[in-house]
Amino acid sequence: MGAALARLSSAGRRIRTLNSWTWTASVTSLLLIAPLLVVVFGLSAPANDLWPHLVDTVLAGYIVNTVGIALGVALGTAILGVSTAWLIAMCDFPGRAFFSWALVLPLALPGYIAAFVYGDLLEFAGPIQTALRDYFGWAKGDYWFPAVRSPLGAVVVLSLVLYPYVYLLVQTAFATQSATLIETGRLLGRGPLRIFRTVAVPLARPALVAGCALAVMETLNDIGVMELFGIGTFTTGIYRAWFGFGDIGAAARLATVLLLVVLAVLWAERRLRKSLRYHPENDRSRPVIRYVLRGRRAAIATLGCGLPVLLGFALPAVFLAWWHVRAGAPIDPAFPAIMLNTLCLALAATALTVAIAWLVVFGLRLDPAFVRPFARTAGAGYAVPGVVVAVGVLGLCSLFDHAVDDVSRMIFGVGTGLLLSGTVTVLLFAYAVRFLAVSMNALESSYHRIPSTLDAAARTLGVFPRGMLVRVHVPLLRGGIATAAALVFVEVMKELPATLILRPFDFNTLAVRAFEMAHEERMADAALPAIAIVAVGLVPLIVLSRRFLQPNVAAETSS
């Protein structure tokens, strides 16, 4: 009888411990959702004079520019990503092995860095137009040259740095398609282009939609390219309403409209992926025979893969280095402090975000039915632009600061002032909201490889969830933790909108410094922090290439 009571008591403790983990994971998820709710509730606040003015003058332009650029980037990334993915997955040509990973390099280059490089190169006083005028003897007005500082220029620049999202997903889809379907098309006499159009692309449409959705989300999040090119979009409108006019209410209303646009994109993406879901026979035992390209076709394929790498990474990187060397000036005395700020901020944000993601994913593993709705909602922060997250986080922290101040004055007669607003803590919280999904995806992927039987065995042996986490999961999750940490670290290094809005006074990061110097046309001063961002950004590409770009099992023989 005593033994039975002891077992019941032990089971009760395990249930209470289990509930504590799941409840903690759920409450933490709700806390990360709160900033987005603050943005939505901001619509109920009374409007100031600026909001009607924005509605009457620039809101329509914001909508047209934002939607137009997003659609243009979706089209541009689809063309670049799908074409290069097909060449790498299904063709054999000189340089294929190199381009299979080099095509991912533009991800290391933030859009605002590419924007100020191309803005300087292609403007009227830039080296390209100057060389054309000198060579042909042209004067102003004698020739036409496309304006880079325009919506079309923004589409081109963003497409060049964001197409790897489509390339990674679609190349994996092509490489894992059924050999039977491809060979059936060949037996029916269909050539490579027709098989590409009628078989491969339709089967890869779910991956294509997902990749384009990621590119669109990054476009909606962008503030650097739009500010440098002088384009009015929702992100620049929020920034100007906040810092130019000091009207947080108008910024919150613009953020709410942008949030609705993001939710519409997410809804459309999920609907499309659901309707385009396929389950073809996946015959990996018989490899797809690659098309061996020779002569002119091989040259076209090499050029087709080389141009995106050249324009999306190599050319901007070379000009950054050239600007820095040409200046010949000593390193900015503030650079070491800015570098230290960035590294410390990125390390702290990485530790916080990975810890929260681990807590949520562990709670999801213990009780999927209860935790899943909270976890999925909290992970939506990555789809929300940084300026929207910044508005929500600042609003939430402001509510907290004022509530604590009011209570302190009521009880002690002394105010506390602003405890969170204007501190690094706010930045860390914003990063956690923004990049939780990045960390969660990496950890969930690793957890899927841990058999649930190990958890059952640990519970049978009387191991509590804390012990199971430390003694069973940690040794098996080292790769997933490293992946999550690397991805979050570099995302924080590159993040501009949230950092620009929420940073403490006189606190600079590499991203903010590069943007400010480029905005002031001080290219030589912007080069060094930009080079540092790009150099660090190369780190996760190794992780991405190992994770996504599996070797194609196809035999390299002629078709």
Structure, described:
With 559 residues, the chain is mostly helical. It folds into two domains: 21-36 and 335-507, MetI-like (MetI-like fold, Orthogonal Bundle), CATH 1.10.3720.10; 58-326, MetI-like (MetI-like fold, Orthogonal Bundle). Helices cover 75% and strands 1% of the residues. The chain is built from 25 helices and two strands. The protein has a two-stranded parallel sheet with strand order 1-2. The longest helix is centred in the first third of the chain and has 40 residues, at 2-41. The radius of gyration is 26 Å and the shape is globular. The termini are far apart. 43% of the residues are buried. The model is unreliable at 11-17 and 551-559 (pLDDT under 50).
Précis, in short:
This protein is mostly helical and 559 residues long.
CATH architectural category of the largest domain:
Orthogonal Bundle
Distance between the termini: 76 Å
- Give the low-confidence spans: 11-17, 551-559
Main sheet attributes: strand count, strand direction, barrel closure: 2 strands, parallel
Rg value = 26 Å
Indicate the structural class: mainly alpha
Domain count, please report it.
Answer: 2
- How many strand elements? 2
One letter per element, helices H and strands E, the order comes to HHHEHHHHHHHHHHEHHHHHHHHHHHH
Q: In the CATH scheme, what's the topology name of the largest domain?
A: MetI-like fold
